[in-house]
Amino acid sequence: MHHGLTLLRFGHHRTSAALSRCLGCGVALALWWLVGGCATTESREFQALTSVRIEDKTVDEVGIATVEVFIKAGFEAHDVTRGKLTFTRSGSTLDAVLYGGWAGGKMTERVKVHITSINAITQLVELEAFKVRDAGDQVFEESRRIRRRGSYDALLQQVVARLK
User: Fold this and answer.
1) pLDDT of residue 25
2) CB contact burial 46-78 (16+ within 10 A = b; e otherwise)
3) Distance between CA atoms of 68 and 163, rounded to whole angstroms?
4) CA distance 157 to 50
5) Whole-model pTM?
6) What range defines the domain where residue 37 resides?
7) What is the tally of structural domains in the chain?
8) How far apart are CA 51 and CA 157, in angstroms?
9) Is residue 145 part of a domain?
């Protein structure tokens, strides 16, 4: 279930994945600036896998850096609103074996990022991640929360480094 305004949707056709990522980054950055209002209130269902506190930056600055880092890491931006971002990328063959079970199905890695203002220049960036079988299928989609945080810690540290 998606809450808030859906600003960016990418199709499933991958004729030019690099072009889509580059175009997606530019569109996401432009749209980030157009979305107004305060950061979103955290949902009780959101359970952060990892987080980082960023000082001396606004929600907008952190959001733009986050979009840039995730797109560079091979993710596609799907839902981008101020303070709440969702990224996906195709899962690996190992993901299909570990998370897909015998039923098979296409695996997708889905990452949700929440940016919450602690004050005007301090932001809390929280991340939760899932392996999703049959993403987008309203009947068969099944997601499992990821518990290993190493690569996600690294992505958030890249966001911090980009903002220095």
Assistant:
1) 53
2) eebbbbbebeebebbbbbbbbbbbbbeeebbbb
3) 11
4) 11
5) 0.70
6) 17-162
7) 1
8) 10
9) yes
Greatest C-alpha distance within the chain = 49
Structural domain includes residue 99: yes
- Tally Cβ neighbours within 10 Å of residue 14: 11
Residue 44 has pLDDT above 80, yes or no: no
* Of the listed ranges 47-56, 90-99, 128-137, the one predicted with least confidence: 90-99
* Tokens matching residue 20: 């889509």
Q: Which of 153, 162, 110 is nearest to 131 (CA)?
A: 110
Write the pLDDT tens digit of every residue in 140-151.
888 899 999 899
What CATH number should be reported for the domain holding residue 121?
Answer: 3.30.310.80
Pick left, alpha or beta for residue 16 (phi over 0 → left; psi -120 to 50 → alpha; otherwise beta): beta
150 lies in some domain:
yes
pLDDT at 128: 97
Q: What is the mean pLDDT of residues 32-51?
A: 59
Question: Which residues have a Cβ under 8 Å from the Cβ of 67 and sit 6 or more positions away?
Answer: 25, 28, 29, 32, 77, 80, 85
Q: Cα separation of 124 and 52, whole Å?
A: 6
